[in-house]
Design a protein that fits this description.
The protein is α/β, with parallel strands linked by helices. Helices cover about 25% and strands about 30% of the residues. The chain is built from five helices and eight strands. Strands 1, 2, 3, 4, 7 and 8 form a six-stranded mixed β-sheet that branches. Strands 5-6 form a two-stranded antiparallel ribbon. A hairpin with a 2-residue loop joins strand 3 and strand 4. The protein is globular. It starts with a strand and ends with a helix.
Length: about 170
């Protein structure tokens, strides 16, 4: 199983943080990822590629080459971090600008045949209330539909990632 870890927190993770597992780990805070400017050139001028020159193609390639992509984020102001939101905004080249019906709803058409399962780890420095967790989990599920994927799990964890290690061991 090919697992990608997309870490958007300020803590830097390496494979030594994941017992007995070898993952493709990207610590986004060490990369240059520009904010999406909403120009839609990734759909119209350079299909599948953002016109901004940054490190996002490396992230997208890692995601698409995985069977499971796990996103790690801090919870800020009772939602995911702006760093994670930026990564998802810049992931729009993974789908077409055209629409299809999925789960009885309108969503973007697939650009690729296969997409990885998605998972989300919420780093719980402060207690995340159940209503906040539910909002984030629902948002992530909706996002996974747009990314033409399924949610494997959404968990609260601490920065030592014991819960994530358990989830991946059960995968």
């Amino acid at each position: 199983m090919n697992v990608a870890i997309i870490n958007t927190t300020n803590k830097i993770y390496t494979n030594t943080d994941f017992k007995n597992h070898e993952f493709n780990i990207i610590n986004t805070t060490l990369l240059e990822v520009k904010y999406c400017n909403g120009c839609f050139a990734c759909w119209t001028k350079t299909p599948g590629l953002c016109i901004q020159k940054d490190d996002m193609p490396e992230i997208l390639q890692t995601v698409m080459n995985s069977d499971l992509t796990v996103y790690i984020t801090d919870v800020k102001t009772q939602f995911v971090s702006s760093e994670l939101k930026k990564i998802f905004d810049k992931s729009i080249p993974l789908v077409h600008p055209f629409f299809d019906v999925l789960h009885g709803e309108i969503h973007h058409k697939k650009r690729y045949e296969n997409y990885p399962e998605l998972a989300l780890v919420l780093i719980e420095d402060k207690k995340i209330s159940e209503p906040v967790f539910d909002i984030i989990e629902n948002w992530f599920t909706r996002l996974s539909h747009n990314m033409r994927s399924n949610v494997r799990f959404v968990i609260k964890d601490n920065s030592l990632l014991g819960g994530l290690n358990n989830e991946i061991s059960n995968y």
